[in-house]
Amino acid sequence: MSIAPFVFTSTLQDMLRPKRFAIWVIVAIAMVVLGQVFLRFTPTSTSTTAYSTLSELIVFRILALAAAIFATGVVSQEVEQKTIVYLLTRPVPRPVLILARTLAASVTVSIVGILAAVGTALGTRASFGDLFLRDCSALILGAFAYCALFVLVSLLINKSMVINLIFAFGYEAAVPKMPGDIYKVSINSYLMSIASHPKIAPVTSDAAPVATPAAVNTIQPGAAWLAMIGLVVLCSMFNAQWFDRNEYVPREDGD
Amino acid sequence: MIQIENASRWFGQVIGVNDVTHTIEPGVTALLGMNGAGKSTLLRLITGQIQPTTGSIKVFGNEPFANPEVYKRMGYCPEIDQFYEHKTGRQFVNYLARLAGMSAAEAKSRTDEVLHEVGMADRADKKLAGYSKGMRQRIKLAQAILHDPDIILLDEPLNGLDPVGRREFMSYLHTLAERGKTILVSSHILFEVEQMTKSIMLLHRGRLLAAGDVSLIREYIDKYPHRVRIETPQPREVAAKLIQLPYVLKVEFDEWRGGIELQTRELNQFFAFLPTLTTEENFTITGFSSPDNNLESIFHYLIE
What we know:
The structure holds two protein chains of two kinds.
Chain A: H1 3-15, H2 18-41, H3 47-72, H4 76-80, H5 84-88, H6 94-124, H7 130-156, H8 160-174, H9 187-195, H10 221-245
Chain B: E1 2-11, E2 14-24, E3 27-32, H1 39-46, E4 54-59, H2 68-71, E5 74-77, H3 89-99, H4 104-117, H5 133-145, E6 151-155, H6 163-178, E7 182-187, H7 190-196, E8 199-204, E9 207-213, H8 214-222, E10 226-231, H9 235-242, E11 248-253, E12 260-264, H10 267-279, E13 287-289, H11 295-303
Helix pairs in contact in B: 3-4, 3-5, 4-5
């Protein structure tokens, strides 16, 4: 197992290299600007409500997007770039390889999420108190959950990036707002429970009423923690087993 | 070292390797076959990247698929030309040395050594993205030998190397073989293979068509007349001269492309005589070639 720390640190260094990570720093800076714009255009908002709104609407979406991108880099990208051959012909047990690389992706995505949250807090002038810390813990857990799930998808499906992006932006955005209990099959609902943002009163208007009201998230934070940890553990175990038993070979034109 | 028993590998409806049985011993063995013959598939089976559909492959007595114990003693130079392009050659080799289980200090010192051995020591600090094909081949070779493996598998390693690089590579290959390594080199060029080793495995459409000494194959080929094409502005005069030679069996005019095509049983004798056509008979010869000296015709003969 002594090779695992090297696989983890080298993957982390690769994912955090300036050329690859710069875009996420820009995203965090954009969140500072967006926070200030939000406060300017909604003068009735407090810093807390502004932060909560932007965090729910954007920061957690950024987290899912980053997870889709970095989780694809764990195996899929190596297969597509054909560099997987160098990894799979080294004396590194495959479960160690995939778990250490997934861990590196999860840490990278956590950093992306926290940076975006810091940018939002700075922009909205919110405090770095309990709300921010709860957000950070939800973002870290979310990074691990999304990465474990997206790596699983990438092991099962070729060109998994598209599926992961649809999941991150379509499924995860829509399902938590659906009526009934279906919101419980969305990672985002559990993360929102852990983050426990203050309820924001809906804006009343004379516009046409919504056909069916969105469900109220009744997941308890403790249960959310357990569910997410369970998801990470189960997906990771499956990923390790699957990667150890299946072939991941780039197609070659010559033979 | 490497035991292949009735190994077959299917890709859906397509067969990549078909019922191959062979044992590969220390020394240099060449895996010869045309593009699509199944060379890379066989190498992937031996390197445990894929599993045989039927049959078995054993390396050091173990199944190689996803087996770190096998990889500790095996080096593989793939045919693919893909790298982590943002890394330098030195960083790339060092990274793979660490993955081979070396400590940071060991990896650094071994990286320096192998880069020197493959002639890349002075160019290893440039980004891989800027490397020529020959430089990339050298780096691939370096990563294959860096952990001093007992078995080295090289998939078309001479592609892209210039003549000097080829000569250096072949000399290095012999040095490794003298150290007792088992080396399997794939190639689709017979001439290239003959310079590397006498021991060959001839693959055609996934099947092992012949295995053993390359000279046996040569002898087999020599049972059949060789064809030689000669380009000359004086085809009739040259043909009249050549047909008098006892070892020339037949001469035909190539009306469409010009020149002549002849058949001989003694290729070496014929080639020894050829210069006299110009030096003593004053004929003009603008070119000549031996279409038989390619793999396709060897396969044709062997299938017949």
